[in-house]
## 1
Amino acid sequence: MSNAILVEELQKRFGSNTALAGVDLAVPEGSVLGLLGPNGAGKTTVVRILTTLLQPDAGRAEVAGIDVLREPDRVRSLIGLTGQYAAVDEYLTGFENLEMVGRLYRLGKRESRERAGELLERFDLADAANRPAKTYSGGMRRRLDIAASLIARPRVLFLDEPTTGLDPRSRLGMWEFIADLAGGGTTILLTTQYLEEADRLADGMVVIDRGRVIARGTADELKAQVGGQRLEFAVTDAGALPAMVELLRPLAVDEPHVDEQARRLSIPVSGGAEVLAEALRRLDGHTADIFDVGLRRPDLDDVFLALTGHAAEDDPAAADKTPAEPVPVGGTR
Amino acid sequence: MTSLSETLSDSVVITKRNLIKVKRVPDLIVFATLSPIMFVVLFRYVFGGAIGGLPPGISYAEFLLPGIFAQTVVFGSTITGASIADDLQKGLIDRFRSLPMSRSAVLVGRTVADAGLNVISIAVMALTGLLVGWRINSSLGEAIGGFLVLLVFAYAISWLMAMVGLLVRTPEVVQNASFIVIFPITFIANTFVPLETFPAVLRTFAEWNPVSSVTLAARELFGNVPPGYPEPEAWSLQNPVLYTLLWTALILAVFVPVSVRLYKRTASR
Ligand SMILES: Nc1ncnc2c1ncn2[C@@H]1O[C@H](COP(=O)(O)OP(=O)(O)OP(=O)(O)O)[C@@H](O)[C@H]1O
Ligand SMILES: [Mg+2]
């Protein structure tokens, strides 16, 4: 299978700040790549280079078999871009925005209008089609922005944090839509901070940090790198924890982790549901103190934590940039 | 590479987009029309009595209006810079740069739309002027020539401002910066008072200031210079139309390519 996106040894510096220190990517035609990384990792820089907005200092980039640096014009007619921040014209209506972008893709007047109508319908914006985008909510703008990048049915689509700022319902809708597009054969490069999102949508994942690829593979492959499942308990009285640790120690495959402050206990185990049942039997006299218990498999948050040494949302800048977290990232399941 | 016809059709799409904004943001219309009216009335009635040095046989209204036209269209062009900076800030330039459209259409569409805005303000000012005593004493052809010289010069300034917008990137800063530069340039000129009243150094600057030549060109073409008015000493003012067009060509020759080049490499953030 040929690669719709191919990146080799991509490097980019801004002054003394190295944004990309040699990134390689290959995205097979028709697949979805999740590009993951904490704030400042270089995700947007990769997207900007691939969409011809930025010149790299070194390296090679191809989109749909065309060299991005040598023939940017040809690349532009095959791609769609939804940048990290919604780029819609506030003074135009939703319909006018889409029609304009269609015309600039050289679709012709009739086709631009038809596509605009279709996409407004598809993105639940038909009712707002004739209102200036200034009156749209953040989520509506985001959807309009994504619709604009789809107007010419691009072969390769770049989505830079497409669901940041969407409410849970819109996020689910967006996921469905992205999955549909992927099903229809569009190659998609998707950046995200939400591990669940990559897990759901992406065929392959690349994790970058400080401009370098630190891991790649499928979700399962990445999870396997971090290994182990854990039993997690939350108790009402921290005083019960030492006794519980002693009762459960025989089941642990590694050192149990006790957090007195949070009144939590986490024990690395192997064996699945049987271990959970056995643990509960052993804790017979203590169950009154336990208010939550679960068997937790590693998710991509753990992968992140293990690979980068800090959680995805560790960076304080992330907190005020993304007010609406989709799910409590890193929470107990 | 995009062909000329593609560049044109892209520019039309962008011009249309910019004019829709004019329609939807009443502030722009207000700016484009109210402030020139205010200027006409202010200078005509508040300062008009105090400003001397005019030869007999010419009313201050006739002297004044072409100067106000010139100042207003030059200020009108500064909108180009602020609008480009705004598009840059809002990520729209990124979107446009990722599309297979012509690399110059965004700037062409912007400057053309702003020229359209200038047409509106000049029309409003001319009507106001007629109400306060300004008259066109020349042929229709010459009068049209007068309006065209003003608009063409202002169009060139728009390209200069486009470059400023791409470099400065913050609409408010572009607005303030251009005010600081443009304001003196439009005042150290023959726009509101005759050059004969200036001290020597300022006078030389004013004589070669293209705002003076565009103003005088308009005065001559509207027939607002009375017979027997002394011949200016500087070559620039002896040939105001030619001198203005030379400046226009020079500004365009420099700032069209520079701005387009900047646009190709610029990125938001
Ligand atoms: N135009 C620029 N000028 C200077 N530095 C830049 C510029 N663009 C990016 N950088 C720097 O390059 C690095 C990578 O930035 P980039 O935007 O690619 O990260 P990101 O992974 O998209 O982060 P986020 O999750 O916050 O969007 C950062 O250190 C950033 O500060
Ligand atoms: Mg980013």
Note: The mean pLDDT of chain B is 90.
## 2
Amino acid sequence: MSAVVAEHDDHHDHGPAKGLLRWVITTNHKDIGTLYLLFALAMFFVGGAMAMVIRAELFEPGMQFVNPQFFNSMTTMHALVMVFGAVMPAFVGLANWMIPMMIGAPDMALPRMNNMSFWLLVAGVLLLASTLFMEGGAPASGWTLYPPLVLQTGKALPFAIFSVHLLGISSIMGAINIIATIFNMRAPGMTLMKMPMFVWTWLITAFLLIAIMPVFAGAVTMLLTDKFFATSFFDAAGGGDPVLYQHIFWFFGHPEVYVMILPTFGVASTIIPVFARKPLFGYSSMVHATAAIAFLSFIVWAHHMFTVGMPIAGELYFMYATMLIAIPTGVKVFNWTATMWKGSMTFETPMLFSIAFVVLFTMGGFTGLMMSVAPADFQYHDTYFIVAHFHYTLVPASIFILMAAGYFWLPKWTGHMYDERIGKLHFWLSVISVNVLFFPQHFLGLAGMPRRIPDYAVQFADWNMISSIGGFIFGASQLLFLYIVIHTIKGGTGEKVTSEVWEDAAKHSLEWTLPSPPPYHTFTTPPTVIPTEHI
Amino acid sequence: MSTNNDYYIPHKATWPVIGTGGLLMMLAGFANYLNGSSAGTAWMGLGLAVFIIMLAGWFTLQAGESESGMYSTQVGISYRMGMMWFIFSEIMFFAVFFGALWYTRNLSVPWLGGEGTKAATKELLWPAFEAVWPTNGPGKVGGNFESMGAWGLPFLNTLILLTSGVSCTWAHHGLLAKNRDQLIKGLAVTVGLGLLFVAFQASEYHEAYTEMGLTLGSGIYGSTFFMLTGFHGFHVCVGAIILSVVLFRSWKGHFQPENHFAFEAAAWYWHFVDVVWLGLFIFVYVI
Ligand code: HEM
Ligand SMILES: [Cu+2]
């Protein structure tokens, strides 16, 4: 036995494989984290380009650049690429990089499977992207893929469906790995209630993912058999029901939006205390609020279907259940605010993005609450109001926090400091333009402008033009982020960064006790001191 | 206090990318086939072959590592958690189809029959439709059919699967008691019962298609019946293959009372398939 131990002892001295092959066959959590993050960044720009097409077409009333079919393909693909290609992988990338370092583990629990989840993601996105070039165009039904409309898709349909399957398998593998890592790989003394919030939120998110991805896979499998194998799941003539699809989709879809927001909460809870120089306010209430949100997310799905003709009891139940979510969400917002209260705050770029997140996410939460009122939602549903709602919860929330995470941890990952002036410029341009982009969409929606339509009545012209201008500025500003990432990787400001990077950060979390950049293998011997400042 | 050194972290994994490539080929080929392209099937076959080679290669590698004692208890816990959560994801997958069955039987078919606020719709659109289960809907999609009874082959199959659960546990006891003979016999019986189950189901399908007019296209009844039993049957096949591999390894002398994750995983999977069948038997056949 001891011979065997000695034999794999020297495994730890192995550096990465040479050349490009390193990235293909790596099992190292840092390598895989980097792959995920870079892939997500690339997809952020691909999805962003599609959004630019949408805003260009909507700049003025009338048909300008693209035909309606292609326009609808753009709204569909934009959403799918952003959700499955950018936001989710970015958070998985953060999980890979940070969770083992935060809990004092030598790596992820199942390193080979980790590699496979990444490559399945690439395969899934490749299948999805290939549909853009097919006869009949990419899916144009909206990301929800509702039948019967989606069944009119051309050659793209089976490719899109199989892409969902691959993305699902990838997410499930990633989630299993995260759960096994957190439950099984913590350093001695790292009890569950001492884990950084980011680890907690990912633990809960991973449960959500394992529960919902198979549901989505099942839904699209039924689409496949309805189209190609004569089943009648969603066809009333055969005794099925298209609304059944909506129920299944949203049973997946609502928890899915929390898959994107819970890790966001986790990162925010990690960053804010560091720059407020105070422990996180209400750590255990944060944990419980996260769990409560996750639980509630499974029992509110039909708030997406208020106008579909549900029995009145259903409308009422889903209305009140949805309103409940505002409670744990409110707990979180108050906790972040209380963490900053009387803190000795400084406003480096990660903190700026985090503060903007707290404010603007709350906006998105409030519009959500408005839409949870079933009779009111008859007016808002399928208008630009809901587009404004979810973009507030996703762009100045999830995306901003991803940016914040980038600024916060890039010095740790690369050992170089980013350029604070350009970072601030990026922040201010983003925070202003994102509001110019999405705030007017509330007005458009309340006035009745439908979503997913390439043309509109002239009364909507002014706000659309303003929104598009905001969109172009927001899109262009993100190139600054790209520049900063490349610049930092290549050496940044040249300033030497310490292992802590941020003042007293090591009191909050273990990654700051490691050198910047950390060696290829970390915590081959578990840490002995567990930081608790974040609690 | 442990050092993390005895947690085995593999390096330079080649099987995952190979497997991904195989899956991608298989699915892209299948999609092309569905779109009527002739090259589709060839790609599917090729992808499947690559995928199978990957499975064989990856599992051989893991089995070798396990037998040479590279996995600490902690590694074993990671594998067990992995398997448990994988089975949970499978449960959710089946739940979708059970949910669809529940929803159509209890909500949407009665609505089609005019229940609740839907009376006028029914009178105007399909006055002749009666909401009884089994149904193929107001459009009588797929033509006349007979529904599948519970107390013939399906009941026999229930007994078969339950017995196989017992034989699987018996094999486990053999393994724990270092009784290799019992282990091998138990596993062989389990695999044999699994194959018998599949054979009976195949003959049931044959009868449905040739004599009862019952097909996948027989409206919502046919859809839910064949999707649920079909996916389950597929899982029985997968489970039987896994058990055969475990049987082969037992015969080669693998597994010790304190180190037999592969056996446990296979057994859990088999019991899961068993429990799903009980659900099917009750909700698809009996009720
Ligand atoms: C306070 C919490 C929230 C409430 C009460 C809420 C409520 C709602 C409601 C009622 C709708 C349906 C509107 C309609 O279709 O008419 C909706 C849509 C949506 N929400 Fe939220 N929401 C909340 C938070 C969030 C969060 C945190 C996210 C994402 C991170 C999110 C993402 C979305 C998305 C993507 C849609 C649109 C889905 C679609 O139709 O394409 N929401 N929300
Ligand atoms: Cu929702």
Note: Residues 68-103 of chain A form the longest helix (36 residues).
## 3
Amino acid sequence: MSTESSEQVLDYPFRAPGPLEPAEEWAKLRAGCPVAHIRLPSGDRAVLLTRYADVRQLLADPRFSHQLAQEGAARIATNESGTVFENEAAASLVDGHQRWRRLLNKSLIAKRVSAMQPRIEAMTEQLIDDMTRQGSPADLLGAVGFPLPVWVICELLGMPGVDRDKLAYWSNTMLSVSHYTQAEIDAAQAEFARYFMAHIAAKRAEPGDDLLSELILAVDEGQHLTERELMMIGQGVLVAGHETTSNMIGKMMAMLLADRARWEQLVADPSLVRVAVEEVLRFDANAGFGLPRFLSEDVEVGGQTLPRGTTVICSMAAANRDDQAYERADAMDLRRSPNPHLTFGAGPHSCVGQALARTELQTVLSVLLRRLPTLELAVPAGSLARREGLLVGGLEGVPVRW
Amino acid sequence: MRVIVDTEKCCGAGQCVLVAPKVFDQRDDGIVVLLDAAPASELHAAVREAACVCPGAAIRLDEQA
Ligand code: HEM
Ligand code: SF4
């Protein structure tokens, strides 16, 4: 493949040979066709980047956003509400020019995170208690991976933990484009809006020690945030922080248990947890679609000029396995350091919740190592089923015994 | 020990702040702020861990200084 073969258009996303394995196309494209032409599920055309340097460059470029609700941008899917990138809540989530983005900055969440760690640990312990009470075998994704991140977001926003099932349903429905009808999606959005407006009113009346109360009191350019902006933050944090983290907990455990030596290494030395979680994040081959960027002006990437108006898909997962950036990129090394992977994006738009996500992953792993050192997969790793989602890849379940 | 941070490499992950909050902080945009370039010896272990887990390799240590 060379630039001459740019006639060739590949159907995207690619199919991977196994639930935890990378698509075969990645290595070929990185080596021979770093700027590949692809056809999205909608039929629209885009360009795919797979090399570490190129993906990093484009993601970190403050000129481009992943707002695809712009004229001329490719559509990813063709159903009514579009993907998370095209619906309004998500579009505002990624619009860096909005006031609330400045207020919901990285440090705001990162600073709360260390204070929250003991609570996250207590929640994890409780979920594992419930799981072990039901007995072995169990689905680790359903028992821990799925409930924990919503519970943590409840806590972050000062919502009662008992509401977490409702919130999990709304978040699921708002994000999923294939599993629910348009009527269900609209209803979930309306119910969430009613619930959250009431919650804002309660926090205005009686502020607590939570992110939402802090944001209500915050002043930007002499003005407080409006109800609508607060609403967008609530919805944004729920949609961005729930399914991503849930899926990552499931995939982390699947990757670490798929090869017993990895789990044993961590049982023997739990101080590796922080560094190991970074390697898990890097190594995830089932990361979903990648991040789109819409080019509002010409840009040079990988020695080629991409014209303005192009929709570019950045595959962080392919970039994370680029052997130009990593030694033995295809091997999982739980001691790898430094590890500047691109799983949370890069530069100014990169994930606001990454400190929280890391803490959740580190906590789940530490508690499981301590509580259930004999943990193992209850099915062969190759038979785990992928959950096909456009935005965040995951597994249908992670059956385990101990 | 002397600590040097490279804000160009920092990706704002906040790992350093989680590990060694007495030595590192973050600006509003997430970029690292060095609070203490010559931390006391009881902080050295935490600072070494921060340098090791920093995803951007943005923290350098001069152990001789
Ligand atoms: C393992 C879990 C997670 C992964 C893999 C992940 C990944 C990402 C990625 C790739 C982006 C886009 C960056 C870009 O456009 O360049 C992003 C944005 C975002 N994430 Fe996360 N995320 C995770 C967890 C969380 C959590 C727990 C929260 C909330 C507490 C969160 C909140 C956000 C928000 C608000 C944005 C939008 C940032 C912006 O537009 O500037 N994420 N995330
Ligand atoms: S850990 Fe490294 S990349 Fe992250 S904020 Fe600190 S210095 Fe920056």
Note: Residues 24 and 34 of chain B are 5 Å apart (CA to CA).
## 4
Amino acid sequence: MADTVQNYVELHDINKNYGDFQASHQINFGIEKGKLVALLGPSGSGKTTILRMIAGLETPDSGEIKIDGQVVNHIPANKRGIGFVFQSYALFRYMTVYDNIAMGLQIQKVPKQQIKERVTELLDLVSLKGLENRYPNQLSGGQRQRVAFARAIAPNPQLLLLDEPFAAIDAKVRQELRSWLKEMIGKLGITSIFVTHDQDEAMEVADEIILTNRGRIEQIGSPSEIYTYPKTAFTASFFGQNAQLEGYQAFHTFGDVPGADKALIRPEFVKVYKLDEKQQYPESASIGTVEQISFRGDRTELQINVNGLLITAKRNLGESPIAVGEQVKVFLYRIFVLKGEEVILLENEAVNSNYFNI
Amino acid sequence: MGHLFKEKKKRSGGSRLSCIAMIGPVVVWMLLFLLVPLLYVICISFLSKNSYGGAGLPVTLQGYLGMLQSEYGRIFLQSLWLSGKTTLICLLFGYPFAWIIAHAPKKWKPFLLLLLMLPFWINSMIRIYGWITLLRSQGVVNQMLMAAGLIQKPLDILYTDGAVLFGMVYDLLPFTVLPIYTSIEKLDHSLVEAAQDLGAGKWHVFTRVILPQTMPGIFAGSIQTFIPSLGLFYISDMMGGAKTMYIGNLIKNQFLSARNWPLGAALSIVLILITLMLMRLYTKVGSLDDMV
Ligand SMILES: Nc1ncnc2c1ncn2[C@@H]1O[C@H](COP(=O)(O)OP(=O)(O)O)[C@@H](O)[C@H]1O
Ligand SMILES: [Mg+2]
């Protein structure tokens, strides 16, 4: 990792074991000040462990954690000045909303009047005005989440950590809270790391994604970078709505990668034509049968059987409808070929022969 | 709380008959061994003392009026004071005790809990006799101290108010420890971590997170200690040499030596009322427990 950019948070060669289990293996990354970063990965991949080590709630077995240029390995959690929003919120059940939010400031012995001003300001910020005398069990999930957020930022932390902040909230409110949180963190300018297992959430909210898998980091990059140019087989298969193909060579217009025969196809790589529709590259399309159609609101999703390989494709509502059992032409723009841990992006040679634009 | 109870009753309901079959024996038992003696005591408390040392007609308020003597008021206060001290000391020792058990390695816990319960298997009076043989002037403790040359003549350990307090604490400590232990076991550790992230050191973690969460246990433990301590007459008899009078002794004496049954019964009724009031507090704590 280049030291040219001054990172606010840096992890160097972090390892952490629970007994024989390797929860973190050689974790390295840096986060620039003011960035909103997602730690993304499947459940059990070690995201929470990383977050807890940064917060000081867990001690790494080896490696260095730096915050603002200072090694913090031996600084206890209560001296790190980091805000933490727990997955289960961990609100103090026996305290009112007001006292929950005020707790950090009370510990710092901030004068009462100042605490009152700050809490009032925060209640306003998270739209909980009038609820300050309620107890956590008298709030909805979304309200609790906002109390947890207000409590964490009340002492003005320079770094905010959020563990699955939306996991316990129902789908509809979750969408609102995502945009709310992104806006809020942008406004406050706090360097933030949030954990999620939801790729859509990470891509929508984060400036940068750190993808974890089995205690290791698979890839780091901006959402579009990591989505479009996966560097490992895991990354390629984690993002998007992939169909896996055994024996991709059946689609003869792709180059051959020696030693590999698995490929991933995302729906956006596929174009479907009715037999009578005009098509740009007629010689390189395959014929398939539509097996299933699911309505998705703004589009339909087709499951197409091409020589025994099942491919998912999308079709916009404006296009002429296709029926189950119909024969269609299927054209693949590109595929991800998997070779062990590697992933190779192959373009359809028919496209390449005409023009080089992707 | 009340509505929770109703729900439970509805669920376990089944048929009315099976319900009666289930609680029937309990009701009979309660009637026979609780309600009947209680009614008997209430009746006696309104009778007058007769010349044979029992109770008889006419119906009077003698028993209750007799309680108004300033001496008895003092004894009541003394008892409350002793019980209060006992409860406080039990809390001071019991809390760390419960904490140690709750944080002991998993395989040790059942053993430590067993040690705590072990005294229950031996009659409490016998255990008090044990202490007497240890603490009396020719007892093991004094002999050892003299043999070691630490003291010249035996210390007066036994038959002091301190000895009574010690005996009470010894006898009731498990009642304090168990509810506190339960509440410590239930502690939500993520709240401790949340407080640490907000900058809380050991002191704030204890006062702002651990204490409030274990308050129901502290409350329950206090009441479970305080109530039985009010009626423990034999400890002050045996370890205090009956030098200072407490409610328990007073009641016992009215029935066995002073032979004033109406007064004894009236005192009992007042003690029961105090206890009931405390029990009410206790059920309030139950609903507090739901919240924490
Ligand atoms: N305190 C612990 N003791 C033992 N194993 C743990 C502990 N914490 C986490 N683990 C294990 O480490 C792995 C990673 O956990 P975690 O970091 O919580 O994953 P994630 O947040 O990505 O779901 C999991 O398999 C989990 O069982
Ligand atoms: Mg997690």
Note: The first strand of chain A starts at residue 7 and ends at 18.
